[in-house]
Amino acid sequence: MSRPADNRAQFRPDDHPNDHFLLTTVVGSYPKPKWLDRARELDESGDLDDAAWAEAQDDAARLITGEHERAGLDTVVDGEMRREEMTEFFAARIGGYEFNGPVKVWGHNYFDKPSVVDEVSYEEPWLVDEFAFTSDVATRPVKVPITGPYTLASWSFDEVYGDEAALARDLADLVNEEVEALVDAGARYVQIDEPALATTPDDHALVGECLDRIVAGISEDVRVGLHVCYGDYSRIYPEVLEFPVDEVDLELCNGDYEQVDVFESPEFTTDLALGVVDAHDAGVESVEQIEQNIRQGLRVVPPERLTVSPDCGLKLLPREAAYQKTANLVTAARNVEADLDAGRIDLDTPVPIP
Amino acid sequence: MSERVATTPGLYPLPDRAKEDLADLKGHQKGDLIDGSEGPAITDVYDRARAEAVADQDDAGLDRIVEGQLRWDDLLAHPLTVSDAVETGGIVRYYDNNNFYRDPQIVNDLQPTGDVAAELEAVRGSTEGPLQAVLPGPYALADLATDEHYGDEAELLAGVAEFLAGEAEQLPPHETLFLLDPSLVTSPPDDDIAERLPAAVDRVAGATDADVVLHSYWGAHDETAYAHLMDADIDAFGVDLIHEREDTLYNLTEYGTHDDVALGVVDGQNTRVETPETVRERADWFEERVPSQAFDTVYLAANTELFYLPVAPYREKLSALAAAADEEEVAA
What is the mean pLDDT of residues B82-91? Predict the structure, then answer.
């Protein structure tokens, strides 16, 4: 029950060089400039006034939005410069949450996993200011990543509801309120991040129910994507095709595309946003390698329904590697488009899975 | 009256300062995780963190002291990822959690490394409490691995059991060995493998003189697997009383159990801290509901590893477990 996906064309640049158009984008997060980390430390220790801290975040958002544009992306994000972590950022703005300290995700990557200690509530806009600033400094369309309600529920300690589904539904209504505010502010590309779906795939019906709540009343001109990563996709496919989204964004490069065949049957009926660079390996993939990775996506969808993106947020990479991966991703997409235009790619004979 | 013993399944959260220091020293990428070859600077941070983990348990008054498994970057797969016979692939999800480990790809005959034994050795002398060793159960470790060597599930299970037995044989003296095996619950074995479970568990349990607890969590054992596991020569099952406890009770009353039992009565994945009274009530509830069995030793434990928690509630939960066991002693 995917939404009509003809909202893709609005992101095609006027000066796009090829007939084919593979929409290039990023999942969202990006390495922070070192000075921003230092400014955050000063802010947290009370040694930076609020205006200076706000200016530092503005400067970083402007810098990374520009970096995305220089890499050539069709749609850009501010690299989530104002967000430390995908659950923390939202939990800090939603009523009913408190924080008790960092917990491990993997290796030495941690987050302040929040605890729900009261019914959740919408108290202030979460992302409208961020979007307004980024779209003001950007010349390309801005995508807005939002952590999904199922993930917000799953990645919290629930001390109150005793029922993750009830918490997720309440949070979905808050996300809907936020998306409405973003659309009013001009947003046309929203990505709901639900990495937790891969952890508890049996809950795909609940995620679908939450997405129904999120898109309720949202115009079909607004492109709504769903990002999922790091899981056994056979457990959520083809169920994800029932979700009311225009695009499903998947991490597949990390596993060397060994799961790509999961999506070949039944037919992938929504748009595919394919991860073509590894977000957790500082080695930069060559343009040629990424072209091969993009062609894995053509096993699943035709070019007019393929979006190209990194596996996941790039924030843990060295910044130079993040930039080079992004730039190579765009170059590779343009090369594949040119090859498609020239008939050099036979869509009936897909590349083999590595 | 049963003796109640406060303990935990191990795998503790790192102290917050060690989290930062190790992130700085080791990095954030796949290739930066522990492979058994870390240098003195990293070793020093772990030594200090380990001392804190032992002090946390001594301060709380736990009856068994674990090493804390703070180096286990790959979680229960750790014993594999420090082995030369294993190559690490991409990061993969750790059960149904927001946690990841590197895919351990077994490419050769597994040989014990002594890595876990060296960790436990490092806390000898730093506590007066009896030590408890922690290893993954053979089924879980086989389940977490990718087999590119043994060829079939049965051979893999036997190979992993042999490997774990070799690790257990090297352990310094310990009072208790917890074998953590959530995979028995989350991905129950098929009938062929279920029949082979007792031999695999026995191979590991037979390598120590300590009391052996086979601890599973995130639900109840599959009935067939449980029936087979009753043939294994262990001292206790560890069961999760936070999830699916009625199904667990069914297995225990239907197929019987051992004289000792470990009860996951504290939620290792929720910051809501149980009071000692709640812990005691959960254990009482369990003992009353298994009339067929009078227990000698009842271990009061967290249901899961504790690394899921921030440091403050983790410490409070250790105290709740210890206090619950203590109150019982007073009442007795």
Answer: 95
The answer to whether the pTM exceeds 0.90 is no
The set of residues, in sequence order, having a beta carbon less than 8 Å from that of A99 and lying 6+ positions away, is A88, A91, A92, A112, A114, A115
Nearest CA in chain A to B31: A281
pLDDT tens across B171-219, in order? 999 999 999 999 999 999 999 999 999 999 999 999 999 999 999 999 9
Min distance B294 CA to chain A CA atoms (Å): 32
- Residue A255: phi and psi, rounded to 5, are -95, 15
Cβ–Cβ under 8 Å, residues B183 and B269: no
Say if domain A22-341 classifies as CATH 3.20.20.210.
Answer: yes
5-34 in chain B: CB under 8 A from chain A: 13-14, 16, 19, 22-23, 26-33
| Dihedral, B53, B46, A317, A287 alpha carbons, nearest 10 | -120
Q: How far apart are CA A111 and CA A109, in angstroms?
A: 7
Which of A315, A323, A322 is CA-nearest to residue A109? A315
Q: Is B275 in CB contact (< 8 Å) with chain A?
A: no
Query: B-chain residues within 8 Å CB-CB of A159?
Result: 270-272
**Is A102 within 8 Å of B19 when comparing Cβ atoms?**
yes
Among chain A residues, CA nearest to B186: A200
Is B273 touching A (CB cutoff 8 A)?
no
As for the ipTM of the complex, it is: 0.92
Q: Alpha-carbon distance B164 to A242, whole Å?
A: 45
Measured CA to CA, the distance from residue A214 to residue A150 in angstroms comes to 11
The residues, any chain, with a CB within 8 Å of residue B68's CB and separated by 6 or more, are B10, B11, B12, B49, B50, B53, B54
How confident is the model over A270-303, as pLDDT tens digits?
999 999 999 999 999 999 999 999 999 999 999 9
Q: Which domains, from first to last, does chain B contain?
A: 3-331 (3.20.20.210)
Bridge partner list, B65: B131
Across the interface, do A254 and B90 touch by the CB < 8 Å criterion?
yes
